Amino acid sequence: xxxxLDHVTKRFGTFTAVxxxxxxxxxxxxxxxxxxxxxxxxxTFRMVLGLLDPSDGTITWKGKRLDYSTSHxxxxxxEERGLxxxxxxxxxxxxxxRLRGMRKQEALKELAYWLERFKVxxxxxxxxxxxxxxxxxxxxxxxxxxxxxxxLILDEPFSGLDPINVELLKAAVLMLKEQGTTIVFSSHQxxxxxxxxxxLCILHRGKPVVQxxxxxxxxxxxxxxxxxxxxxxxxxxKNFPGVVKAKTTxxxxxxxxxxxxxxxxxxxxxxxxxxxxKFALEEASLNDIFIxxxxxxxx
Length: 299
Hints:
six-stranded mixed sheet; four-stranded antiparallel sheet; globular; alpha/beta; Alpha-Beta Plaits; Rossmann fold
């Protein structure tokens, strides 16, 4: 295990931003960090980076406390843009890479690789303010990982990106993970976490309300989603035993049900009533779990 947060609390005056948070983030893995705005995610990241000291508890990386001597091992992509708008991309990246201990030539070589990978080699000598928001995000990502950190923290990495650039960035993140980087990322878009993370933590008002392996979390939740498309009315299923929630759609109905037995009972009931185009039983989504545990939708 690599990154450990042990009973970490952060107070600002009378306000507690992070409350008794204990986490173990495995090496070479992608870990999802979820929570609504104000849940304490960014404060936690800033403590991991050594920018804020915990009020209580300890944070260690491979058994060693984090401070400025370990900062070259960490890469950070903040949620808000943090680049110098007047500087050229090349000068900006070289400056930040040198702060992390890289030589200029090494930094330029890495920069050329990343600009090519992100299909923007012509941006090397452009000022940051000349770039679109999405392309600024790419440059900021390069700044976070150019020094090949062991731990990479990504705070809302996909915000403001169009679908093509989301896929480009996602592929880059997965490549870094395969190369052995430990990655912690927060996202408002649950499906990204669901797709990319094996372990996760949901924070609510500074406290973890769900944490562990994605598979185990879904299994423990127990409820399933049932989607039915049919050529007859399905409204009566809203009151069917075992149905927790129901939403009618243009094609039919979407149900949250207590378990597989309910699906079997529903199928027996509707067979023979008419043509059934779709009957699909699915695991609960991360969004379903979030809404139940936090009491509010993420989006």
